[in-house]
Write a structure and sequence with these properties.
With 414 residues, the chain is an all-alpha fold. The protein contains 18 helices and no strands.
Amino acid sequence: MPSNLIKEDQRSFLTNSFYLYISYFADFFLAILFIPFIARTLGASEFGKIGIAQTFGILIILLMEFGSSLIATRKVARIKDDNNQLKLFIAKITTFKLFLLPIAILITVTAFFVVPIFSDNPNYIIIVALGAVFQGMSPVWYFQGIEKMRKIAFSKVIFRLIGFILIILLVRSSSDGWIVLASFSFSSILICLYLYSVIIRKIGLFQIEDIIESIKLFLKSAPSFFITIVPILYQSISVFILSVYVNPLQLGFYYGASRIHRAFNTLYGPLSQAFFPIISIANEKNKIKSRVLIKNYFLLIFLLGLLFFLLNFFFAEKIISIFLGDKFLPASETLKFFSFVLPLTAISNTLGRQWLMVLNKDYYFAIIQLFSSLIAFFAFYYFLSIIGVRALPFSLIIYEFITIILILIFFIKK
């Protein structure tokens, strides 16, 4: 019986992973395919500005998600057979996200005054913030929880493709960076509206719930929120500092290497997101089965991370030349630094985002993330004057290493 259950979960895992890979293809690999055109047309300096704007967008996305990619997915996976409970939960999470809107606006206004690039290009931050709000509002967590990833995949492929077609048609010079950002934002808005329309057709219209009750519900997800936001916050602040200390050309080279690293890093995403609801349900029903599943998952994702390291370290120049062009070849050394991060991320993903979260140790994982991020940030700041832009990927290596060590210490003590 356990063997049959594992086989059934393997089928579900493979199916959902397939559709999530299609989704990630739309989000990231279409972008990689179009990067040669964008990078060559805009130039390294403008490319770097877009990178800073998109980094800020990630912060707003994570604020609006507020840990829903973890906590809401887990909750939906457990209540998906109870339509009334499911409808109430969706109403509460949507209400809470609307409550976060003023906070997102306040952060955007603050960034406008604090970050020079945004002060000089106010349209960049407005366009990115708008798209980020809708992307953070998107109920992707619902479809992940009920293990129906096909809707996510096809909506992203269609609407992202529309965005990239607009880029190809409209971007003509280095002054058209805002069009790239606007195309991404436009597609994010369409995806969000479409996914909510699917939910409404399936479960019916839902009302905005009492804001106090919604806040109470999501205060429970605060650790999950910190798990997602803290590492990105440290990385984003580091990038903003980088934009002040280095010239636009160096920033463009950094962003080029970072974009390629992020493309490889996101290949973990479909596996991670498809596996999380499966391991959450399995751990509730059969502890032995869940341990077998997590071991198999670890082996798969670690081997994938090792492959990514080898590709990015030994073929950095070739990858840069193909995707960004020969003018970006100075970014190859930075990409080699990033390559060491990839297998470490595979390990920390398994131990932290999967196993600790399944064991409901959200709080401990959040504390570990906070400590690791602080150490990594100080390391970045210290090494910035010594190794320049490579200080950021070097700090990521430190961050992942400390995270792994602290998680292992937690398991040993427990």
